[in-house]
């Protein structure tokens, strides 16, 4: 749904020079949010369900999971886009099924679109209208200001999209400042994509991933295979959640938690919940030059065999 022409305009001045400041600002913001109750929105159950549906859609859309997107659509759902490019507005409308079919025939890259503000109205528990003010990022860099509008209808107690519309304006290049927190959240989202090649795109072309002091996977093709091994083990419900980003003298620690059910080839069917971290060295473009992953392999193996609580 978006124009990724400027994916790799991640400048040196907008990457590592901003990293320490960005981590500190995000940390301060999180602390402030935890101590400020006045701005917490209380949602009804329907509103909360609609919000969760929209957030799940933005994840699967950012990962171009076309099958999951299709499942979330009502019959004959439609799409409308208004874009401001070079001081000119263009508009486009189509059935979402047409968009999804066309997406199968082009090269897509992951994006991350966190929502800054929601406005949700539910009519009689069956029709919902959502306005979401969001910023679309690629690999930690904000590219587009989007105002998204969603209309959903409840079918058999499940919220389905009947319309998705949005306006999109480019963020000026001077404001495209690399944010390591957003990069880390985008990376976690890519691990949930069922597309291991998306994980590899967060690495430099000659980047490396070493898990528990094993043999390093060097280059995007090898990193793709390493990510695929985990995705194959949890093909149905694997989620890698971003926990925190910690600056250390040795590099940046990306802390994560993986949950899923081991239903892959020769799987045990047991649920797994394991946490760990990757120690990152980033290159001048803010991509991962080297990652040293670490988690409790013995506990992971135990959960694969017996489950989380056994």
Topology:
Layout lengths: L15 H20 L9 H18 L3 H6 L1 E13 L2 E8 H8 L11 E9 L3 E12 L2 E15 L2 E13 L9 H12 L4 H5 L2 E9 L5 E2 L1 H14 L5 E10 L2 E11 L9 E12 L5 E8 L1 H10 L4
Parallel strand pairs: 1-6, 7-12
Antiparallel strand pairs: 1-2, 3-4, 4-5, 5-6, 7-8, 9-10, 10-11, 11-12
Question: Can you describe what's shown?
Answer:
30% of the residues lie in helices and 39% in strands. The chain has two domains: 135 residues, Nuclear Transport Factor 2, Chain: A (Roll), CATH 3.10.450; 127 residues, Roll (Nuclear Transport Factor 2, Chain: A), CATH 3.10.450.50. It is globular. The longest helix is centred in the first third of the chain and has 20 residues. β7 and β8 form a beta hairpin. By secondary structure, the protein is of the alpha+beta class.
Main traits of this protein?
310 residues, alpha+beta, Nuclear Transport Factor 2, Chain: A, six-stranded mixed sheet, 8 helices, 12 strands, disordered N terminus
């Amino acid at each position: 749904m978006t124009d990724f022409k400027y994916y790799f305009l991640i400048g040196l001045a907008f990457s590592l020079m901003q990293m320490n400041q960005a981590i500190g600002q995000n940390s301060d913001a999180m602390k402030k949010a935890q101590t400020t109750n006045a701005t917490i929105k209380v949602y009804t159950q329907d509103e909360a369900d609609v919000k969760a549906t929209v957030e799940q859609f933005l994840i699967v859309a950012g990962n171009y999971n076309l099958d999951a997107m299709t499942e979330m659509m009502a019959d004959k759902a439609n799409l409308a886009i208004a874009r401001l490019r070079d001081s000119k507005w263009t508009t486009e409308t189509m059935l979402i099924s047409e968009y999804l079919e066309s997406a199968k025939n082009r090269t897509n890259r992951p994006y991350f679109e966190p929502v800054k503000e929601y406005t949700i109205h539910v009519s009689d528990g069956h029709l919902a209208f959502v306005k979401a003010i969001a910023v679309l990022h690629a690999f930690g860099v904000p590219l587009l200001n989007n105002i998204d509008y969603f209309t959903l209808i409840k079918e058999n107690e499940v919220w389905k999209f009947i319309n998705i519309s949005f306006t999109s304006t480019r963020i000026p290049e001077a404001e495209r400042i690399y944010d390591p927190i957003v990069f880390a959240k985008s990376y976690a989202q890519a691990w949930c994509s069922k597309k291991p090649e998306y994980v590899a795109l967060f690495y430099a072309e000659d980047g490396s991933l070493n898990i528990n002091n094993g043999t390093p996977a060097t280059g995007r093709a090898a990193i793709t295979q390493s990510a695929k091994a985990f995705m194959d083990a949890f093909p149905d419900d694997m989620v890698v959640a971003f926990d925190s980003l910690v600056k250390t003298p040795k590099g940046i620690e990306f802390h994560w938690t993986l949950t899923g059910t081991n239903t892959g080839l020769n799987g045990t069917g047991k649920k797994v919940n394991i946490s760990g971290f990757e120690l990152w060295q980033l290159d001048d473009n803010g991509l991962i030059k080297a990652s040293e992953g670490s988690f409790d392999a013995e506990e992971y193996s135990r959960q694969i065999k017996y489950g989380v609580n056994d």
